[in-house]
Amino acid sequence: VVYWDGAQRDTYTFTFHRNSLLRLVEHLSLRNITLVCQDWGGVLGLTLPLDLPAGTFTNAIVMNTGLPPGRPPSKGFMQWRQFAEKATDIPVSGGIALDVGPTAMTLWDAMAYDAPFPDARFKAGVHQFPLLV
Fold first, then answer.
1. Which listed residue, of 22, 44, 74, 129, carries a Cα 20 to 30 Å from 13's Cα?
2. pLDDT in tens for each of the 133 residues of the chain?
3. Is the whole-model pTM more than 0.85?
């Protein structure tokens, strides 16, 4: 989940985030990176080595992710996208609890997930990212 104080939903594009990551790696002159991608981060992260010099990435840890296979998303995912697009507010911890199961999270865990998002103004990425996948 991306936090950006007061950003508008149209700021959250695949190209914006991909280019930001590419420029960060270049600006810091990073080499021998172990690319770690999990869940939706893989959709972005797995494309990065294609546009950076050899030796920038030397390892990859890929978890619960991949590149879209070119077929329509599942009915469940499309329902999630519609919810993310139309909801006025999305409880971040609620989405995590649905994924891991309500007994896997304590109240403190939920509060930690929600802390960077005091209200809906801080959740542009939470609403927009499902529409990018």
1. 74
2. 444 555 677 778 889 889 999 999 999 999 999 999 988 888 889 999 999 999 999 999 999 887 777 888 888 888 888 988 898 888 888 777 666 766 778 888 888 888 888 888 888 888 888 888 7
3. no
